[in-house]
């Protein structure tokens, strides 16, 4: 497996657990093997040391010098439009959907169940229609509609000619 996301200055990370869970931060400096100095100027996370265990690295990287001030980090963050890019990712959409589902009331879950049943009923009905159409197209014609074999047609024509000749 080849790693594509490395711990580096300017790497944007998602905080997976702890007091700031669910927020984005930028790595400003690497303290040691286990911790980094992070800053989240647009997400409400103050500059602090944070363990790598509670961070998940994203694909976004900001350009600023190491140990840059918060102002510099904020300018780079806004220039790259990280919040909008993050909201457009599948990762963020999954998190949002999970939160939305967790906040559903009993009545909301009931409405979703009924909508799914209705959707499945419509799909089943349309599938039956398509299967019926396919079986009609692939069906062999009945014996009454079947044309006679060419050998028999020739014999019957010969018989008719012989009858005409006798008359």
List keywords for this structure.
elongated, 5 helices, five-stranded antiparallel beta sheet, about 20% strand, alpha+beta, about 170 residues, about 50% helix
Oligomer state equals single chain
**What is the topology, as strand order, of the major beta sheet?**
4-3-2-1-5
Name the shape in a single word: elongated
Based on secondary structure, the structural category is alpha+beta
Biggest beta sheet attributes: 5 strands, antiparallel
Helix content: 40-55%
Calculate Rg over CA atoms.
Answer: 36 Å
List low-pLDDT spans.
none
Strand content: 15-25%
Total number of strands = 5
How far the N terminus sits from the C terminus, by CA atoms, comes to 94 Å
| Average predicted local confidence, pLDDT | 88
Give the topology string: H per helix, E per strand: EEEEEHHHHH
């Amino acid at each position: 497996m080849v790693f594509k996301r490395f711990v580096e200055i300017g790497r944007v990370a998602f905080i997976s657990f702890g007091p700031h869970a669910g927020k984005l931060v930028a790595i400003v400096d690497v303290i040691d093997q286990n911790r980094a100095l992070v800053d989240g100027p647009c997400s409400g996370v103050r500059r602090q040391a944070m363990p790598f265990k509670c961070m998940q690295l994203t694909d976004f990287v900001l350009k600023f010098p190491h140990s840059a001030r918060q102002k510099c980090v904020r300018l780079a963050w806004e220039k790259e439009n990280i919040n909008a890019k993050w909201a457009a990712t599948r990762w963020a959409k999954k998190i949002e959907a999970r939160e939305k589902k967790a906040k559903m009331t009993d009545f909301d879950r009931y409405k979703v169940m009924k909508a799914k049943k209705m959707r499945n009923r419509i799909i089943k009905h349309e599938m039956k229609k398509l299967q019926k159409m396919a079986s009609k197209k692939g069906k062999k014609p009945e014996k009454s509609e079947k044309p006679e074999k060419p050998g028999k047609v020739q014999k019957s024509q010969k018989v008719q000619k012989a009858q005409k000749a006798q008359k």
